[in-house]
């Protein structure tokens, strides 16, 4: 899911805020948000859709003239990278126009259709979704043809995303997984389901996964950024993206 890209995009957008100057609060705020969205779109590439940026503090526009703008919320409805589509929603707090922030967080949401393409072979063919609380996997048990829905708990930590079977629905009856697997011929079903931990790749220093949740839109992974990671990522983004976020810069787009 390229969480590092989320960090780079979030911090690069901070520099764009300084482009605004003069006029009323509303005009300055609108201009600053336009420039932040432009910088975000540049770094996400041409495939990104629904890119937006918003300064949420009162008088945020006028604050850009002092170098401190408060909270910046940026995101994109759809980003495609390395063959995977996902949504990004980030909030940066204590934002300064020098490209720093006191704290930040982001949520990366991957749709269930995308997850279905990447299920491990043990459960490939089952359909992922949610019942409002769990990550669900719906399909059949082995070669029996019996339809089941497995209800899984999800969590995220330093080792990655962990999916743990909690219970199972069989023909409208909810039962513990152990009850189902105790039946003749069902013992191998538990081995297919896990629990399993999937790595989420190497994260930049100062970026920590804080949780995971099965939502109506897909599987959402939450991350927290330290101020040090925000500052260092901002420098990396300026050097590597080729996007000009300064006043009057047109910006070049990169994936």
Walk me through the structure.
- Pfam families: LmeA.
- It comes from Streptomyces oryzae.
- This is LmeA family phospholipid-binding protein.
- The protein has 255 residues and is of the alpha+beta class.
- Helices cover 27% and strands 36% of the residues.
- It contains seven helices and twelve strands.
- It has helices at residues 3-16, 25-44, 60-63, 112-117, 177-181, 187-193, 227-240; strands spanning 52-55, 68-81, 84-96, 103-110, 127-130, 135-140, 147-157, 160-170, 173-175, 196-198, 207-214, 219-225.
- The strands form two sheets. The protein has a six-stranded antiparallel beta sheet. Strands 5, 6, 7, 8, 9 and 10 form a six-stranded antiparallel beta sheet that branches.
- The model is unreliable at 10-25, 233-241 and 244-255 (pLDDT under 50).
Ordered list of secondary-structure elements with their pairings:
Blueprint: H1 3-16, H2 25-44, E1 52-55, H3 60-63, E2 68-81, E3 84-96, E4 103-110, H4 112-117, E5 127-130, E6 135-140, E7 147-157, E8 160-170, E9 173-175, H5 177-181, H6 187-193, E10 196-198, E11 207-214, E12 219-225, H7 227-240
Antiparallel strand pairs: 1-2, 2-3, 3-4, 4-12, 5-6, 6-7, 7-8, 8-9, 8-10, 11-12
Helix pairs in contact: 1-2, 1-7
């Amino acid at each position: 899911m390229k969480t590092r890209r989320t960090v780079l995009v979030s911090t690069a957008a901070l520099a764009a805020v300084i482009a605004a100057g003069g006029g009323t609060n509303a005009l300055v705020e609108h201009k600053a948000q336009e420039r932040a969205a432009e910088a975000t779109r540049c770094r996400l590439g041409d495939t990104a859709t629904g890119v937006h940026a918003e300064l949420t503090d009162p008088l945020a526009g006028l604050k850009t003239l002092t170098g401190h703008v408060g909270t910046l919320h940026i995101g994109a409805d759809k980003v495609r990278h390395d063959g995977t589509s996902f949504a990004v929603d980030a909030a940066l707090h204590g934002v300064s126009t020098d490209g720093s922030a006191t704290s930040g967080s982001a949520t990366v949401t991957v749709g269930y259709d995308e997850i279905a393409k990447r299920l491990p072979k043990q459960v490939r063919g089952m359909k992922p979704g949610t019942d409002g609380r769990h990550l669900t996997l719906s399909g059949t048990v082995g070669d029996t043809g019996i339809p089941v829905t497995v209800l899984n708990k999800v969590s995220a930590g330093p080792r990655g995303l962990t999916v743990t079977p909690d219970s199972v629905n069989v023909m409208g009856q909810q039962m513990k997984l152990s009850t189902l697997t105790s039946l003749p011929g069902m013992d191998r079903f538990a081995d297919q389901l896990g629990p399993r931990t999937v790595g989420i790749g190497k994260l930049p220093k100062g970026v920590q996964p804080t949780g995971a949740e099965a939502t109506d839109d897909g599987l959402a992974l939450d991350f927290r950024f330290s101020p040090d990671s925000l500052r260092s990522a901002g420098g990396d983004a300026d050097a590597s993206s080729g996007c000009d976020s300064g006043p009057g810069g047109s910006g070049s787009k990169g994936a």
